[in-house]
Design brief:
Blueprint: E1 22-26, H1 31-42, E2 47-52, E3 71-75, H2 81-88, E4 93-96, H3 103-108, H4 110-130, E5 136-142, H5 165-184, E6 188-193, E7 196-197, H6 210-219, E8 224-227, E9 233-234, E10 237-238, H7 239-251, E11 259-263, E12 269-270, H8 271-282, E13 288-291, H9 306-312, H10 320-333
Parallel strand pairs: 1-2, 1-4, 2-3, 4-5, 5-6, 6-11, 7-10, 8-13
Antiparallel strand pairs: 9-12
Helix pairs in contact: 1-7, 2-4, 4-5, 6-8, 6-10
Length: 340
């Protein structure tokens, strides 16, 4: 039985020999982090180290890798600076994915969101800056940084005001990264994710994203609940595209300062479109329930990907509909549930 998911990561996004390098993925048991770990191991990375406290990640996402000689797991918290220093020791590349996501969670508990997303991020930056081996620090930024800007598409450098505590924390990550660039000459790359979806995304998390919830509900013949009229739109981006962005950010030779990039498809899919696509995939008549819109949510979001295409040679290989088909089949194979 293969350790790796069928239909994923059959395209190489790197030219380098990964066996010569070591990687740290914080939040590596989470959704995006574990997919990045899978890519690195599939292509023979010299060593992959995961740091995760399993508050938002799941051992199920990485259990197949635990016995590999080139894989190490540190069960620890980025809010502890000594843990961060231990995790960073001797690695060449860091992808910092650890965070508490979700706008509603940040509204319910802004203090913990800030402690993890800002305090933990700062710990990782300090540890990385002190490293003698590190070649590149890449971190998960967020499309929420565009806030109340109504401009479409979203273009780097034209941000609005944050609409949630979560958005504030992700903005502060970019501010800290920029300051570290100017004060310590420490260069990092932020990837502003736009609604990433794909295998290993847990629909049973209290703050789960819409696509895994909808996929599971369709499979289990439960209603689909939409907040608002369904015209809310997002630049839904399949996870393999996010992995591509991380890999290309690791190995770019042209970026010599802190910079941020949209990671998206440059498309706009409404929740009503999502329901229609799922109806086609499932062959079922779906029951949709509409509720009040959520506080702090952005109505429409679509990214410009011109900058990341020009600087990192990023081009999304899997469009929304193909990605939705892959993940829907993955949830069906998993009996409608991801790792718990």
């Amino acid at each position: 039985m293969s350790l790796f998911i069928d239909k994923l990561y059959n395209t190489r996004f790197h030219l380098e020999d990964l066996s010569k390098h070591s990687f740290l993925v914080t939040g590596g048991a989470g959704f995006i982090g574990s997919n990045l770990v899978e890519y690195l191991l599939k292509y023979g990375a010299g060593h992959v180290r995961v740091l995760d406290n399993f508050s938002n990640g799941y051992i199920e996402n990485i259990k197949d890798f635990l016995a590999l000689p080139n894989f190490t797991l540190i069960d620890g918290d980025i809010r502890d600076i000594d843990t961060c220093k231990l995790a960073v020791e001797g690695v060449d590349f860091i992808s910092h994915q650890a965070a508490l996501g979700s706008v509603p969670r940040s509204i319910n508990d802004p203090i913990t969101t800030n402690e993890v997303n800002v305090g933990g991020f700062l710990n990782m930056m300090v540890a990385a800056n002190d490293s003698l081996s590190l070649k590149r620090f890449v971190y998960a930024a967020s499309s929420s940084t565009y806030g109340d800007s109504l401009a479409l598409p979203k273009v780097e450098g034209y941000e609005g005001n944050p609409l949630s505590p979560y958005a504030v924390t992700k903005l502060m990550n970019e501010v800290y990264a920029d300051v570290f660039n100017k004060v310590y000459n420490f260069h990092s790359i932020g990837l502003r994710y736009f609604n990433i979806f794909g295998p290993k995304q847990n629909p049973n998390n209290p703050y789960a994203a819409v696509i895994p919830i909808f996929c599971e509900n369709v499979i289990n013949e439960m209603p689909l609940v939409i907040n608002g009229d369904g015209n809310t739109s997002r630049d839904f981006t399949f996870v393999e595209n996010a992995v591509q962005a991380n890999i290309k950010a690791f190995f770019t030779k042209d970026i010599t300062k802190h910079d941020v990039y949209n990671v998206a498809c440059g498309d706009e899919i409404s929740l009503n479109d999502l329901v229609e696509f799922l109806q086609d995939l499932s062959g079922k008549d779906l029951n949709v329930i509409h509720r009040q819109e959520r506080m702090g949510d952005v109505k429409h979001s679509r990214a410009s990907i011109e900058k990341i295409a020009a600087d990192l040679n990023y081009y999304p290989l899997i469009n929304f509909r193909d990605g939705l088909s892959i993940v829907f089949e993955w949830y069906k194979k998993s009996k409608g549930t991801s790792s718990k």
